[in-house]
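Aim 2 progress update. The chain analyzed this quarter is reproduced below.
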Amino acid sequence: MKFYAVRRGRTIGIFESWDACRAQVHHFPGAEYKAFPAREEAEAFLSFRLSSEPIKKKPVAAATSASIIEVWVDGSCFPQDDGSLRLGWGLLAKKNGVEIHRDKGNDIPQSAMNHRNVAGEILAILKALRWCQSQGITEMTIYFDYQGLESWVTGAWRTKLPFTQAYAQAVIESGISIQWVKVKAHSGNPENDLVDQLAKEGAQGK
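Predicted structure tokens:
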């Protein structure tokens, strides 16, 4: 059995037959869809929609090393008494040392819950990429504390699971040039401490 994931079409979702999928994408401009042998892989494909919707970009001057956006990301995980998990993500963006954007949330796909904190960090990076796209930003520096976030994208680590495979593909195809800077978690860095707090608030729905 195949699962057909449509992430740009008349109806977004997962369909269990080609005919149902075809009805959503046939003659639909820019349709994005793919067949998968497992529902989890189809869900991961739907989770990453950086390029699935048109983004209005603001015109920007050519980036220089002094004006590249700096972004800090983090994820959080709160195990619940019933065995479930509450995950969250947080991000902070600065330009020339001045905060220009922050965000948080808990909209992490169910299929990614087993990744715990890392799922939150992945979502934070994807949200940062989409925000940069909307602002016409083409370069940024990402400060992170889990090595896989960089290594999955560069190929230094093999992406073995659908969620990390879809993450790496989304970053590579984003059109954003990224400089990766690994930082030590809970080391007293103000920006890292802030995104840690934002991620916790996101997980708690604050």
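DSSP finds six helices and eight strands in the chain. Residues 50-66 have pLDDT under 50 and may be disordered. These observations will guide the mutagenesis experiments scheduled for the next reporting period.
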